[in-house]
Amino acid sequence: MKIPRLIPVFLFPALLLLFSASVPAQRLLLGSLFPGTEELIYPRSPLLSLLGTHLVLTAISTAAATAAGFLLGLFAYLEPSGAGRRSVAGLSGVAQTFPPAAVIALAVPSLGFGAPPVLLALFLYGMLPVVVNTTKGFDSVSPRVREAAKGVGMNRFRQFVLVEFPLALPVILAGVRISAVINVGTAAIGAVAGAGGLGAPIIAGLVRFNPALVLQGALATAFLALSIDALFGLFTDTLQRQ
Fold it and tell me: Is the distance from CB of 72 to CB of 127 less than 8 angstroms?
């Protein structure tokens, strides 16, 4: 693997950890950008703790969206008529176009404040890329490859497990990658429902008209999104070379 491809894999996580764990680094950067601002650092919780909460929200919602999206995409692929595919595409499309903030607002009365309504919103918002890429991944498998698998005596199950799924996996992972990066950014909205995460300084900064707090949360969120994207890229590249 070429060295330039590895640079983002190490650079962005290093920047994320340095910025999140080092209060002096945060003060130095934010103080130089916003001189004269009294409150440069979010006071209620360390940024590293907020990062941990943000990671948990993103991981749980992305895992759930991946599982549901894969099953829906697989159903759309295996269902012989076009009606199933159109139904799955429409359902997942509606789920993503519904604003996450609206989902949280509607879910709070029944689920309460905290993580549950935020996880629901992230789950619904993160499904579509997985559904679409699962279907595209299996569709991309050449009919000649399927015929060759049948020719060597594979039954339908073995053909799916040993041939179709491995060939479709890189495309499916691309959908999971998109879903994870989307959920990192969208999870910041969770702070309005008391779920914490890196959105907490952003919301506090907006309420207090303090751009330093907004940038503190936004930079950490951006570094996290770039880190996850780089790690997924490395994993996908490694998989395709095997």
Answer: yes
- Strand, helix or coil at 156? helix
Q: For the chain, what is the domain count?
A: 1
Task: For residue 124, give every residue at least 6 positions away whose Cβ sits within 8 Å of its Cβ, in sequence order, or none.
Answer: 65, 95, 96, 98, 100, 103
Residues across the chain: 242
Q: What is the CATH number of the domain that holds 197?
A: 1.10.3720.10
Record the tokens describing residue 54, joined without a space: 């943000």
Domain around 175: 47-241
> 139: pLDDT confidence band, cut at 50, 70 and 90?
confident
Mention every residue, 6+ apart, whose C-beta is less than 8 A from residue 14.
none
Q: Does some domain include residue 200? A: yes
| Contacts of 41 by beta carbon, 8 Å cutoff, 6+ apart | 23, 26, 27, 30, 47, 213, 216
Residue labelled with tokens 């950067």: 29
pTM, whole model, 2 decimals? 0.88
Among 127, 133, 144, residue whose Cα is nearest residue 170: 133
Q: At what angle do helices 211-241 and 3-21 cross, to 10 degrees?
A: 150
> What is each CA distance from 5 to 133, 136, 233, in whole angstroms?
24, 26, 9
pLDDT tens track for 7-61: 888 999 999 999 999 999 999 999 999 998 889 899 989 999 999 999 999 999 9
